[in-house]
Amino acid sequence: MNYVTTKDGTQIFYKDWGPKDAQPIVFHHGWPLSSDDWDTQMLFFVQHGYRVVAHDRRGHGRSSQVSEGHDMDHYAADAFAVVEALNLRNAVHIGHSTGGGEVARYVAKHGQPSGRVAKAVLVSAVTPLMVKTHSNPEGLPLSVFDGFRQALAANRAQFFVDVPTGPFYGFNRPGATVHPGVIQNWWRQGMTGSAKAHYEGIKAFSETDQTDDLRDITVPTLVLHGEDDQIVPIADSARKSIKLLKNGTLKTYPSFSHGMLTVNAETLNADLLAFVRA
Q1: DSSP at 227
Q2: Residue 1 pLDDT more than 90?
Q3: What is the mean pLDDT of residues 121-139?
Q4: Which are the catalytic amino acids?
Q5: Which residues are 93's β-sheet partners?
Q6: Is 161 exposed, middle or buried (0-12, 13-18, 19+ CB in 10 A)?
Q7: Any idea what DSSP says for residue 110?
């Protein structure tokens, strides 16, 4: 398997498919999943002639189950370690959920300063800040995320069944078509990772204020969000992010869930391809 070793000795697993001289598209997965969550998009883009790269975040999937570094700064630095090792240039970085936060921090702190990033896409992203604070009164109460931590610590296996069975893909909505294989795949990816990384990652995705990251991004950035996202409500994420981006475009989808990249892949893939080609 392919690994990059970071400066602190963490081994980051990555996939690298397609022509090495083609424009690279780099995918950043959500919590608590792995690069496998991008398989549909990676197959789609490699079939359109692109080089596709995706890595497992530290503590997730096949990457090292290290004790430390489960924060947005390390996530972005680890992504940069992969980009540098593969010498990726003119890359499009696409992030989902927590991966969207990772993309924002990566582009602002690493991608733009190194001249390696061409465009960015934030899909159902946690940016700019999820938790409710004095300056972010529309955010979710801290008690919501404390509940995530409590459920994970008490019975991670059951928690990782309940999330995809219910709100993540909108399978809890009346009339929804439920895909058992999608639920099982979510559980499989989650249980492969480290409980400590997942526990500490909740703070990373909920309490990291990325307002400045968004303001610093100058490359063309596409923001995609489902209007029925029950995990990352659109009013406190995409609708705020677009106001902070200097070169951003917002597209929303009525009735689409947080997991729209999976259950509405045909629609999302077409929109992603159009943006990459533009």
Answers
A1: T
A2: no
A3: 97
A4: 97, 229, 258
A5: 26, 120
A6: middle
A7: I
**pTM (2 d.p.):** 0.98
How far apart are alpha carbons 240 and 220 in whole angstroms?
A: 17
Structural contact between residues 176 and 170, judged by C-beta atoms closer than 8 angstroms: yes
pLDDT tier for residue 250 given thresholds of 50, 70 and 90 = very high
Closest to 191 in 3D by CA, of 163, 160, 219, 162: 160
Sheet strand arrangement including 91-96? 3-5, 11-17, 51-55, 24-28, 91-96, 117-123, 221-226, 248-253
User: pLDDT tens-digit profile of 49-72?
Assistant: 999 999 999 999 999 999 999 999
Residue 49's nearest CA partner among 80, 25, 18 is 18
Whole-number percent of the chain with pLDDT over 70 = 100
- Cβ pair 86, 270 in contact under 8 A: no
Spatial CB neighbours of 76, under 8 Å, sequence gap ≥ 6? 102, 105, 106, 109, 110
Q: What is the largest CA-CA distance in the chain?
A: 49
Mean pLDDT of 205-232: 98
Q: How far apart are CA 231 and CA 227, in angstroms?
A: 11
pLDDT of residue 273: 98
CA distance 256 to 178: 14
**Structure tokens that stand for 155 in this block:** 């019975």
Contacts of 162 (CB under 8 A, 6+ apart): 151
- Write down all domains in the chain, each with its CATH number in brackets: 3-277 (3.40.50.1820)
Question: pLDDT averaged over the chain?
Answer: 98
Sign of torsion over alpha carbons 255, 259, 260, 264: negative
Tokens, residue 115: 């001249």
